[in-house]
Amino acid sequence: MKNLRVLIFTESFAPHTQTFVYNDAVGLSKNNQVMVACLERQNTEKFPFENVKVLEYKRNWLSQKLWSRLYLYDLKMSYKNRKFTKQLSFITQTFKPDIIHCHFGPESLMIFDNLEGLNIPVIVNLHGYDASSLVQKSKIYSHRLKKLFQASNIFPTATSKSLLDHLNTKGIISENSRPIYSGVDTEFFKRVQPQPKGVPFIFLQVAGLREKKGHIYTLKAFKKFLSVCGKDSSVLIFVGSGEREPELKSLCEKLGIKSQVFFEGWASPEQVKLYIEKTNYFIHPSITPFSGDMESTTIAIMEAMSMELPIIATYHSGIPEIVENEKHGILVEEKNVSQYVSAMQRILDWELQPQNRQQIIDNFSQKKRI
């Protein structure tokens, strides 16, 4: 394959919650010329990347108020902005990309509203909310996405087949669409130390403390699990931060499991690797909340599998595309606490699962994605 000039566009580059965009930029730059265009650059020291252009996208208060009203009432969604158009046009004229890679649906609309007559290939990479809750919430967004997908130079992708299937049920279809799964650096997420033995058994969940991550059901199940297996038999570690932390800590106190549950906050990839290495089991019981917001395949599960951990997860969105029930772990129904408890009890007999790592190497590595 020839060396390509790739322009990556994302609203915010390298926030802690979107390291997958950064990983794409780094991976692609090994054999291609890559430029990242964004509206906000975060964590420059933690996630260094040289060729980043921060663009200005601002509305005056009146136009912002009008835009918000039109969007609120599902009347219009336009990202046209004169200054942004000028900056974006300058980048495409000087960098001359062979391909544009847009992360998230709204960002793809920003590109097309401000680059008229665009005819080079554009990959639109959908990750979760932009193919689920936003489609459910906004008819105008769905209509615009449907129209965009009809263009011959648009190549819609999603990080799971289930997200594309969900869009198809909404009439948002493209002949060019295909899943491109998120990838894991399997050389980095590689076990060095043996799995810890004996009591207490350690359950780990790595996820932002948000509703769709299902932490409430993890806690309710863990309480019942401890009542059966003994209060000192296991501990539960939450790695991640988010708006639901006070509610979850309050629930721990109410359930009487405060001393068995640890909230560790946000962690770097290096720290996450250490947590996984010192853990027995990985749990990720995602749910679909009322808003319709869905996961894709979840990189956290892939990282844990790359380090051979057995998995407890739900039949949610694209998770069954990476976790085969009874082979890589145990899958349960969303919000079914009794099934969660049973899975926790049964998985105590599982040790490290080398086939989990092989699944990631064969199908979900960063090399495969790039």
Please characterize this protein's 3D structure:
The chain is of the alpha/beta class. It folds into 2 domains: 5-179, 3-Layer(aba) Sandwich (Rossmann fold), CATH 3.40.50; 201-369, Glycogen Phosphorylase B (Rossmann fold, 3-Layer(aba) Sandwich). 37% of the residues lie in helices and 18% in strands. It has 14 helices and 13 strands. The strands form 2 sheets. It has a 7-stranded parallel β-sheet with strand order 3-2-1-4-5-6-7. A 6-stranded parallel β-sheet has the order 10-9-8-11-12-13, sandwiched between helices. α11 links the parallel β11 (281-284) and β12 (311-314). α8 (215-229) runs parallel beside α9 (245-255) and α11 packs across α13. It is globular. The protein starts with a strand and ends with a helix.
Overall geometric form? globular
Any guess at the CATH architecture of the largest domain?
3-Layer(aba) Sandwich
What is the ordering of alpha helices and beta strands?
EHEEHHEHEHHEHEEHEHEHEHEEHHH
What about the largest sheet? 7 strands, parallel
Name of the CATH first level of the largest domain: Alpha Beta
Percent helix range: 25-40%
Q: In angstroms, what separates the terminal alpha carbons?
A: 12 Å
Strand element count: 13
The CATH topology of the largest domain is given as: Rossmann fold
Count of discrete structural domains: 2
Low-confidence stretches: none
Q: What is the average per-residue confidence, as pLDDT, rounded to a whole number? A: 93
Structural class: alpha/beta
Strand order, sheet with most strands: 3-2-1-4-5-6-7
